[in-house]
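Run log, item B.
One chain of 344 residues. Sequence copied directly from the ordering sheet:
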Amino acid sequence: MNAITHFLMKSPTAFSTEKIEPFSLEETPIHLMLVDHDIYLLWTTILYHFICGQMPDTVYRTWFSGLIANGDSSEPRHLYTVDWSSVVASGPLTRAETIGSVNILLSMLRYFSGKTQGNKAKRPILMGAWRTLLDLLAHTDSYRKLGTVILLRDGLSIDALRPEIDVIAADLCTSIGDPAMARTRLDEAMKTARLPSQLMLAFRLASSLHPTPQSSLETLSEAAQLIASPLKPFFRPLPAAQGAAEPKYAIEYARHMYLTALDLDQSLPMRTNHSFNPALFEHCAFAWINMLYLTEIGRWCCRGTPTYDMVTKQMKSITKLAVDAMESEDAKRLVFKFSSSCGI
């Protein structure tokens, strides 16, 4: 493996395992004819071999099987990340292993950050490198909290990583026992994100409260207001005093916003301002998911009443409309997955 890294880096020494010192992936020999997808797979495999001393057998078994069966060297090779929880299961990484791994991943991050500028097709590769790095740091005791948070703060300045990096950051903050910081990061991301990303971040913010049928009305109302936050610029605001005094009304008010935005309320739609554009919502997966989320919260509020069954039927109808409105299979699956989690 050392010979391979020397060859790829055109350097007499491999990557450092003594200090944080990223290296350039721009020096990959041109005659190798490697595309960025190949470079990601190659360095992720080097990383895995560096730590585990073997190839990632489960990842490559399918590719080699296809190669033998079809005789086709162009068989698709899917991107993958390293599962650090299984890697460190037998014991923590040594200092040298941690530093070497961080150097590889920082180098990949720097390289693919540049490639992603102006080319969104490269974002999955960049996100793969980020997720692997952050997951590594989350499993490194000496670096886990302070170092990872500092790195995330710097990483969030890379626009190409947003909004996915904001969600990863929040998940990581939650995993290290700081849910308040997780919510703060999502809230900060909302301020600069575009509407489709705001809808997704609003969903994550509401989910961070972990609302359940047993939650208080105040918690359910707070979750509903978080879900509704991306739509508030388009509608007349709910009087704060009324929302605080009547949590169920606040929940229904938030739900009514989404009914209007998705053109599902033909009888009494809410009045919108001149900047409202229904086309922004029609095919957006998280607009429909948030609509379902708010309806689910409303259903929790009417447990044990005849209204419960009526709301359940509404959710089934909304799910069908949502799936029909999606323009990609991935979006359809996302909607169906959430609907299924609600028992619909």
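Observations after the first pass:
- Residues 197-344 form one domain.
- The mean pLDDT is 82.
Flagged for discussion on Thursday.
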